[in-house]
Amino acid sequence: MRSSDLSASELQPRRLHLLYHELRESESEYSYIVTTQQFAGHLALLCADESVQAGPRPEFTFDDGHISDFEHALPLLSEQRVKASFFITAGWTGSRTGYMGWSELRALQEAGHSIGAHGWSHALLPHCSDVELDQELRVARLVLEDRLGSAIDSMSFPGGRYDKRVLKACHQAGYTRLYTSEPRTHLSGGVIGRVNVRGSMTNTYLQKLFDERSGALTSLERQYVLKAFLQKLLGDRFYASLWSMINRKQPDADAVSKA
């Protein structure tokens, strides 16, 4: 990772929400992998002395429930005394290789971090039947609450996908905070947008996202609009194959739901 060109005091932060998927100690061609060194740099940069910040700290969020949340993110977050939100694919917990079990989730919870839902099987919610939506939303929440012993009121949409029907189902299932991957601070319907952090993003680039004069966030928003257009034009399965190729990841059984 290249060193920062600006000091923390030159940041002009907004309440952006950052989205991570997996941390690794070494670099990867897969664009969703962020190294532990990069993440430590992000924390140091964006969580410096609050007296030099022009606004609130960003919210750090993690989707899927990968084991690296516990092994790598937790120690680094603890060093900076930063709390994060972890959105868990409930059906993968304790049953899927490379993902956390219930003991790891409880450790995150006991450290003061927030646990939210990310569906049951990571299915794209707009494609679900009413029965499937119930499994992905209500059942996932109830299982998380039962195993963790606390209320679950936040939900991150798998693939960032939702529509009016999904929003209604989420509210009926008991969720009050809803997150997507659209890079905006606020969206209609009370949905919270997030910036999807990629391994190619340097500290300098992150600083630009917090500077309204740079236009970096506006550029990301335009890219997202183009991505959404391509998703609709190509269809999810073909788009997922294209996405996997562009992002250096071989298509697998979950490619459609992860794109």
From TrEMBL:
GO annotation terms (biological process): carbohydrate metabolic process
GO molecular function, one term: hydrolase activity, acting on carbon-nitrogen (but not peptide) bonds
The entry's keywords: Signal
GO cellular component terms listed in the entry, alphabetical order: extracellular region
Subcellular location, record wording: Secreted
Superkingdom of origin: Bacteria
Pfam (any one): Polysacc_deac_1
Signal peptide extent: none
NodB homology domain segment(s): 56-259
Keyword check for Aminoacyl-tRNA synthetase: no
The protein's name: Polysaccharide deacetylase
Record has Signal as a keyword: yes
